[in-house]
Every structure is written in structure tokens, then in C-alpha cells.
Design brief:
By secondary structure, the chain is of the alpha/beta class. Helices cover 30% and strands 28% of the residues. The chain has 8 helices and 15 strands. A hairpin with a 5-residue loop joins strand 3 and strand 4. Helix 4 packs across helix 5. It is globular, with a radius of gyration of 20 Å. It starts with a strand and ends with a helix. The relative contact order is 0.12. Bound molecules: ribose-5-phosphate.
């Protein structure tokens, strides 16, 4: 087995290769004069792990090209971050189900797909090959443990992330809750933990994605008004669009961290361990057949 990654997942693919003790295949990435993408992979093997986060249109095309370059091999596709997954239904007439379109396109010629904390697991039904979603909640829990906070309170910004927050908090046996939003007037909302008080607590807000940072910035401001001692933000996928990192820091958040599903300067924990585990489990199961 060998591992190969797109440009957006260079570091993570190398970490996965190290963790499964496989060779990483070097790839030359460039562009044709008209802007079309080109790549040339080194020697592939008959079993390939292809790793590529879809963070924009170029990374999506690059992933399709890389899968094609591995034609003839048995392919396990790792989609650490699946862009377009949030458009998982038609919200208005005439819209595509973008998550379905992307899932179908990337899974055509692969044998299995692995996703990481996908926004909604029902998206997995759109892949043509068997797909499994895994969680890096444990790695986030380990990171929080390393922060040595006194009695932290782990909070989800909404009930959609509540299960995930419980998974993270379970790692250290920390208190956990989620924020409830109350509309005060037409343009004013208030957010507060559903059951627990944030007063004098070190709060870690955890979510699957930080995109514009709007959700967490609002939550952090409210929590500080409610007497939180300090607020941290931790997510799986640091999309961090449109100046989100600075916006969160400006909102008073002490530290903003994410995993390496999207490789950022604030990537502080890796998805490589859980991804390697599932790849190795697959190998063991195949070996038993
Ligand atoms: C939404 O359902 C997701 O779990 C995140 O809460 C959301 O994508 C965050 O977006 P933003 O950072 O733009 O507020």
C-alpha cells in the first residue's frame, strides 16, 4: 500500500503514510498556460490511499485527477474535509444538491471512502462506494487536556453540535452543555448555555466547522458578558474564510485551533491517527476474509 495526497493535504497525507508505515508517493503539481491543472505522480502501487481535502474548486479538480492517475489500483479515498457538504438538500427550487454531486464525482472509481466529521452523515449515502465517517473528537479532547485548564466547560454553539461536544468532553470527564439562542427582538439574539452557567469558567467552544467565525464570535461575546473567565475555540475543519481568525481573536477568544483536515497555521491536532486506525482496520478485516 502507498499513500498519495493532493496539494491541500500534503502534510496530513505524509502523517497518514507514517502512521500506517507506507510509502508516500511524490507528485508534481503545476498548471498549463491556460490555467488548467496538471499533475504527475510517482510510481503507484496496486493498493493506494488517496488523500485530498476539497477546500476550493482547484483542490476538487486536483483530487479527481489524482484518483484518475491511480487508475488500476484498489483505491481508498480519504476526504478529510469535504467542501460542498453543507449544501446537502435543495433549499430553493433550481438549486443542486451539491454534496451529492461532489460525492458522486469523487467516488466513481474508488473502492471505499473515509470522511472526517462530515457535516451530516446522511451525505455518505451519496457515495457510489462504501463510505465511513470518523471523528477527531478524541484528538481535540487530548488537546484540551494539554491546555491544563482548571475545570473547563465544553460548549457546543448549538444543539446540532451537542453530540460532538459530548464526545470531546467525554475525553476528560469535563462539564458539557450547548448554547440556546433566544430572539430578543427583530435583530437581537441572546445565547446562553442551556443548563450550566459560564460564570468564572474557562469555556472551550467546540464545533465541526469554523467558516466565517460568526457563530462562535457571537457566542464568545455573550459568554464573556455572562462572566466567563476566558473563552477558547476548537474545531475540526478550520475553513476560516474572510478574515475569520482575526475576527475571532478580536472577539476576545484566547486561542482558536483546528485540526489538519484543512492545513492552517492554527492546526494543532491531527486527524492522521484516527484515519490510519480505520485504514489498518480495513486491512485486518480484508485479511480475515
Ligand atoms: C453549522 O451547522 C456548522 O456546524 C457550523 O456551526 C457553521 O458552519 C459555522 O459557520 P460560521 O463559522 O460561518 O458561523
Amino acid at each position: 500500500m502507498k499513500v498519495i495526497g493532493t496539494e491541500s493535504s500534503q502534510i496530513l497525507s505524509s502523517r497518514i503514510a507514517d502512521a500506517v508505515r507506507a510509502e508516500i508517493v511524490g507528485v508534481k503539481f503545476s498548471k498549463f498556460p491556460d490555467g488548467e491543472l496538471y499533475l504527475r505522480a510517482g510510481a503507484i502501487s496496486d493498493e493506494m490511499v488517496v488523500v485530498g481535502s476539497i477546500i476550493d474548486s482547484d483542490s476538487f479538480v486536483q483530487l479527481l485527477l489524482l484518483i484518475d492517475a491511480c487508475e488500476g489500483s484498489e483505491i481508498q479515498l480519504v476526504l478529510p474535509y469535504m467542501g460542498y457538504a453543507r449544501q446537502d438538500k435543495k433549499f430553493h427550487d433550481g438549486e443542486p444538491v451539491s454534496a451529492r454531486a461532489v460525492a458522486r464525482a469523487v467516488s466513481q472509481n474508488v473502492n471505499r471512502t473515509i470522511t472526517v466529521n462530515i457535516h451530516d452523515p446522511s451525505v455518505l449515502l451519496n457515495f457510489s462506494a462504501p463510505a465511513k465517517n470518523i471523528s477527531v473528537a478524541g484528538a481535540i479532547g487530548d488537546h484540551i487536556a494539554g491546555m491544563a485548564l482548571k475545570d473547563p466547560l465544553v460548549l457546543a454553539p448549538d444543539d446540532g453540535a451537542a453530540l460532538f461536544a459530548h464526545e470531546v468532553a467525554g475525553k476528560g470527564g469535563w462539564d458539557c452543555d450547548h448554547l440556546d439562542k433566544t430572539r430578543i427582538s427583530g435583530d437581537e439574539v441572546s445565547m446562553a448555555p442551556r443548563k450550566l452557567s459560564a460564570e468564572n469558567r474557562s469555556v472551550v467552544i467546540v464545533d465541526d466547522i469554523i467558516s466565517t467565525g460568526g457563530t462562535i464570535a457571537t457566542a464568545a461575546s455573550m459568554l464573556m458578558q455572562q462572566g466567563a473567565r476566558e473563552v477558547y475555540a476548537a474545531c475540526v475543519h478550520g475553513v476560516l474564510s474572510g478574515g475569520a481568525f482575526a475576527r475571532l481573536k478580536a472577539a476576545g477568544i484566547r486561542e482558536v485551533v483546528c485540526s489538519d483536515t484543512i492545513e492552517r497555521g492554527c492546526s494543532r491536532y491531527s486527524a492522521a491517527g484516527v484515519i490510519a486506525g480505520i485504514i489498518q482496520d480495513g486491512k485486518r478485516t480484508a485479511g480475515r476474509r
